[in-house]
């Protein structure tokens, strides 16, 4: 069955230009399918108008929905006129990420695209609380699109976990590479690179153990990572020149390599409840994301359970 035939674009209500919709149309023209331009809106003042009856408040809300629907239709007019299959849906909801996740789950959208903001070309992508909720909890892949043109011959950089012996992470590595190759082949034969970051020598060990040899330790760790990377790349027939095993913290190695390669997108994986975890555990992936200057594509493991993600308590307010 062909993938990515049912795309949802989270429309940015504050922008007249919609990079995520533009990227979705780019994908649609190459792989077909349909697009839904989706916008959750809410204005608390409409709920506080006590002088109006419930029917009158509902009518006012519907008026706002109709206005926004026409606004999106105007934004998408050129694409619709060109024959792109775009459905437009605006809903009244006070938590945008919940509305998006509900829509994805109810209508089996297999890819979500959303705009990510930047201060300027030299700054990292800025993620809002709504962005983080979607990245952590949305069951389908999420593509955060920066508001800059795709680089000439832009590459896909896939961050993989070469350290963990957890079978779940091994399966996630395979999914990241498999899905990245699939999209690359379907879209524009994009180059796919793999990256793994191995840790620096622990300073406390070097201090506490006089006979400890940091160079031997580094060589041993690098050797383990190189073997793991070779196994992974051979599984997917990827050339050695497209794999990178570098020393350092992932939040430095991955964004740095993405800049060096002029990558169009970095591909990460998540494991749900414990937060983003692409090539690593804990909050490291979130630190990586904070340093990116390119698009981000996030996948969940096959056994990701939406109910578990929704159980997480998060006091951050949606912007």
UniProtKB/TrEMBL annotation:
Its main location: cytoplasm. Keywords: Cytoplasm. Residues 4-146, 179-300 form the UspA domain. It is found in: Cytoplasm. It comes from the Bacteria. Gene3D superfamilies: 3.40.50.12370. Required for resistance to DNA-damaging agents. Belongs to the universal stress protein A family. This is Universal stress protein E. It comes from Tatumella punctata. The gene is uspE.
